[in-house]
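Hi again,

Forgot to attach this to my earlier email, sorry! This is the prediction with zinc ion bound. I've pasted everything inline since the attachment limit keeps bouncing my files.
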Amino acid sequence: MSKNSFTVLGSSSGFPQAGRSSSGYLLKVGDRLSLIDCGGGVTSSFLRTGADPLKVDRIFISHTHSDHVCELSLFIQLIDLNGRTDRLDVYLPSEFVEIFRQYLYAVYLFPKRMPFELKLIAYEAGFEFDNDFSLKAYDTSHLKKYAEDIGGLDIPNKMQCHCFQIELAGKRLFYSADLGEFEDVTKYLNNNDYVIIETTHIDIEEFLSVSGKYNVGRYILTHLGSPAEVEQIRQAIRKSGLSNVSIAEDGLELPL
Ligand SMILES: [Zn+2]
Ligand SMILES: [Zn+2]
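Structure tokens for the complex follow:
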């Protein structure tokens, strides 16, 4: 692994696939790790990289769809069983913090029994993290379609979904998480070494026709469907002649 890197742990969409884990990404800065999203299969994908669970200091969750969060408790269990003693910071959309706190008891992960402090941190759009790398969270319209379903129900859902701008050592990486439409993120694309962009909620042909307008080193298309759908995207990229667009695979490591 490079000194600093971003590794795809899961490149599947919300429609689970046999050959890919659901959303998960590993940011390595020096010898410390941060996990971004934790969907189905991500814990095993993480272990396949050979990374040390005890080096994960932070977890950031973009939004609470199952394909981004369903293995969060299992990942915390992995860290717990490996005997962590340092604090673990878990950044969650604010709508989810209390629900997840209760859920930990439901799955018998009692914080009091853990040999480390588990800190659940609520964040919202506009949040800025600044330490050995920086991360800014922006809103996407991905979950707004649920407004009608939520109206009138006594539930805490605020339709929070966030994309992340990450910067470290002069390198910039943008992670779209899930979108309502491509326009959610066009204003953030410029001047990134990497743009990790989901393919489920955008028009691929439209994306390929405008992607060259932005100053982006390399686009990585992720959140992928069936092998047949991936093949269609592969052919569209080939037809476009674009050389800076590629398709994610689980285990793909991008040096930063
Ligand atoms: Zn998703
Ligand atoms: Zn989603």
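The longest helix spans residues 227-240. Residues 4-255 form a domain with the Metallo-beta-lactamase; Chain A fold (CATH 3.60.15.10).

That should be everything now.

G.
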